[in-house]
């Protein structure tokens, strides 16, 4: 019997990852910097992309600005039309957005990239949701969806810059089923320089999300757009 859990280490050979070329990628929060950047990179790689927003008009405007065949729709329509839905909304709207879209997201592969952060005069710091992490909150709110977590540590500046051809970074991918994490790893691999790395189940998402606070400190100190690399994999 084949073990279909994410606990089995994924193959190192990227050619063993699934073909995701036919999947429609939706981006909730696609009018924000992170969502717009992800939409741009996936569209540039040849994926069909739909960006979502509470306002269909704002979504269509953002889609036109991104170009490369990206389409815009309200969040509900974006979720309905997509096979894989990336959640890139602000943390303070995370729960309300997902609660409202529970029906539209049923059966979908959901990729949560939200980082619960607070800011004060000392800089960024991690928040701890009652569920443990944003990804675990998503899983609790979307019991009929297949929730994963990924794309937390990417620079929105680099994602949106057409002069940047490669983004040399690894993407930590978390989830409960290997088939789902493999799909997300394959999507990450579409972006030149990027690689998806399985990083555990959703219960491990908090430390992945919270590491963004450290990267913000790195970037401010060194005036950089730092990412992550996992060695010996």
Q: Give the overall shape, derived from the CA principal axes.
A: globular
User: CATH first level: which class?
Assistant: Alpha Beta
According to CATH, what is the topology? Rossmann fold
How many DSSP helices? 8
Distance between the termini: 27 Å
- Beta-strand fraction estimate: 15-25%
CATH architecture classification name: 3-Layer(aba) Sandwich
Report the major sheet: 8 strands, mixed
Order of helices and strands: EHEHEHEHEEEHEHEHEH
Tell me the count of domains: 1
Mean pLDDT: 94
What percent of residues adopt helix (DSSP H or I)? Answer: 25-40%
Give an overview in words:
With about 230 residues, the chain is α/β, with parallel strands linked by helices. It has one domain (about 15-220): Rossmann fold (3-Layer(aba) Sandwich), CATH 3.40.50.720. It is built from eight helices and ten strands. It has helices spanning about 35-45, 55-65, 75-80, 95-100, 135-140, 155-160, 180-190, 205-220, and strands at about 25-30, 50-55, 70-75, 85, 110, 115-120, 125, 145-150, 170-175, 195-200. The chain has an eight-stranded mixed beta sheet with strand order 3-2-1-4-5-8-9-10. It has a two-stranded antiparallel sheet with strand order 6-7. Strand 9, helix 7 and strand 10 (about 195-200) form a beta-alpha-beta unit. Helix 4 packs parallel to helix 5. The chain is globular, with a radius of gyration of 16 Å. The protein starts with about 25 loop residues before the first strand and ends in an 11-residue tail after the last helix. Mean pLDDT is about 95; it is low at about 10. One of its GO terms (molecular function) is ferric-chelate reductase (NADPH) activity. Keywords: Oxidoreductase.
